[in-house]
Amino acid sequence: MFRFDKEQKVFDLGGTTIGGQPGEYPTVLFGSMFYNRHKIVTDEDKGEFDKNAADNLWTAAEEISDTTGNPHCNQIVAETNEAMKKYIDWFVDGYDEPFLIDSSAGDVRAFGVKYATEIGVADRGIHNSINASIHEDEVAAIKESDLTSAIILAFNATEPGVKGKIEILEEGAAGIESGMLEIAEGCGITKPLVDIAAMPLGAGAGANVRAGVAVKARFGLPVGAGYHNSASAWDWMKTFKKEHRDVWPPVDIGNNLIAGIAGADYYLYGPIENATMIAPAAAMIDIMVAENAEELGLTVLDPNHPFKKLI
């Protein structure tokens, strides 16, 4: 637990604050909805889903966020343009929080940023993500949109360690001539959120936490990741949890908390169903970090911080 010499950027994402020195603001939580095989989705191509179930899931996330003080954002995942439109419409018509525009298909992400601009909610939209495999058409779509925020993925296929992550952000790598941050700036992204690209155990997971510290120290930008991916890709755990299901939640949630102690600003924690588990755990870490921050001359700046609400 520490403070950075580098000035730390703080961004407003449609009313949600993210970034800063460790302890100043609560950790932001991104829960995923409409993901592959999500039970509430009945037709992933057409974007048909159980709206009551979706409302119940998001309302539960809002309620636990109100309790702990950790803001929630929606990671909307769609595989077609039609589905992306329906998911965004459902969310922005009923709720006020920011949302990620996510898909395994670049053209669907491109459609999402265009659509968010078209309906006037670009200030709440966050593109996911600008990465080494992004195509020119998607870059053009972001440039033409009104979005100002995006996840910047620090995944370097040739060097998974901290050095490689910094390299891909600053200079590019593996045939990419520009760094991811330069590409983002060229797209009009003024609120970049760095995803340190959490790696699986045994394949570079040791850099997951240290990379976040390095990025904040070097660039002063908000950092986070899908830390839970390190656990979900752990081959031994895949087998072990089949007979010991109770061991999985603490491992899954715990991956995030390790990074939180080291100053992570946000968690892409996975399925929205885990909202009520992750928020109290995130709040506990936020309180610990805030207590130490005060000893380092920092101040909790958010009146809704868990340190203010739960102590």
Automatic annotation (TrEMBL):
Please list the GO terms describing molecular function: methyltransferase activity
Quick check: keyword Transferase in the entry? yes
EC numbers for this chain? 2.1.1.86
Q: What EC class does the entry list?
A: transferase
**One BP term from GO:** methylation
Give a single Pfam family match. Answer: MtrH
Q: Which UniProt keywords apply?
A: Methyltransferase, Transferase
UniProt similarity note? Belongs to the MtrH family.
Output this protein's name. Tetrahydromethanopterin S-methyltransferase subunit H
Organism per entry:
Candidatus Methanogaster sp. ANME-2c ERB4
